[in-house]
Amino acid sequence: MTATNTEIALSARTIKKSYGDKEILHGISIDVAKGEHIAIIGPSGSGKSTFIRCLNLLEVPNHGEIELAGERVFDSASKTPVASVRALRKRVGMVFQSFNLFATHTALENVSLAPRRVLGLSKEEAEARAEKLLDRVGLKAHMHKHPSQLSGGQQQRVAIARALALDPDVMLFDEPTSAIDPEMRVEVLKVMKELAEGGMTMLTVTHEIQFAREAADRLMFIADGELVAMGEPAQLLDDPAHERIRRFVSAINGEI
Ligand SMILES: Nc1ncnc2c1ncn2[C@@H]1O[C@H](COP(=O)(O)OP(=O)(O)OP(=O)(O)O)[C@@H](O)[C@H]1O
Ligand SMILES: [Mg+2]
């Protein structure tokens, strides 16, 4: 974390989410400081994706409140929406496991589309911005290629550049490397690490424990829709008191 102040970028209070009559998230709360990077780990099906999707209202929580930089953007008690979803998504970027790039568009076009459509930039302005971002993720030389001509790691870096193109305040990552060949993962993790070091506020769901240890300020362990533990990564991962986390980490290390 570059910021030493406690300015809160994102605050979520008692987020609950049900599908049908099954409650998946049982009331998760979190305050993310500006510039902080939080890694989220936990067993499959525990609600990690559901939780971060709630933060940009890809899933609408059944209960809870969300604030961005102190501004209420969601309140389940409010009968009317407190902010437009469109405005919120501009401020909270997201990168998914599957890159979801437009196959018929080049990398440059994929990154420049949203700034043109959402921010109303001209083609030239949007492409200049896209070129800079593609350079930042190490893909300037590939900017005129289509997704099928790029590796998984390269496609994911295009997806990161695309999310950054709206100049978000917060970035959400949902297992950004799990669909990528192991040798290509490192280049994506490097870009994410640089982003975090550059002061971006980030929440990353990941199974990359080493990355979480090195690149996150805090680690959040979710199990069965509850926040079980939250703290400094090394402390949480190495403290024998956190038996459940240790068992989880051993299990994923064993799987790999
Ligand atoms: N759209 C949906 N409709 C119904 N149930 C859902 C839906 N999305 C998720 N669930 C259920 O909610 C629970 C939590 O799912 P979620 O995808 O958030 O888990 P996760 O922790 O991200 O798991 P993984 O590590 O496998 O990605 C699971 O039981 C899942 O089946
Ligand atoms: Mg998931």
Label this structure with key terms.
binds magnesium ion, 4-stranded antiparallel β-sheet, globular, 6-stranded mixed β-sheet, Rossmann fold, alpha/beta, binds adenosine-5'-triphosphate, 26% strand, 256 residues, 10 strands
Instruction: Let me know the CATH homologous superfamily.
Output: P-loop containing nucleotide triphosphate hydrolases
Helix content: 25-40%
Question: What is the architecture at the second tier of CATH?
Answer: 3-Layer(aba) Sandwich
Distance between the termini: 29 Å
Q: Which CATH class is shown?
A: Alpha Beta
Q: How much strand?
A: 25-35%
What Rg is obtained from the alpha carbons, in whole angstroms? 18 Å
Q: Strands across the major sheet, in which order?
A: 6-7-8-3-9-10
Low-confidence stretches: none
CATH topology: Rossmann fold
**How many domains in all?**
1
**Main beta-sheet annotation:** 6 strands, mixed
Number of strands: 10
What is the averaged pLDDT score?
A: 93
Ligand roster: adenosine-5'-triphosphate, magnesium ion
Query: Tally the helices: what do you get?
Result: 9
Class from secondary-structure proportions: alpha/beta
In N-to-C order, the SSE pattern is EEEHEEHEHHHEHEHEEHH
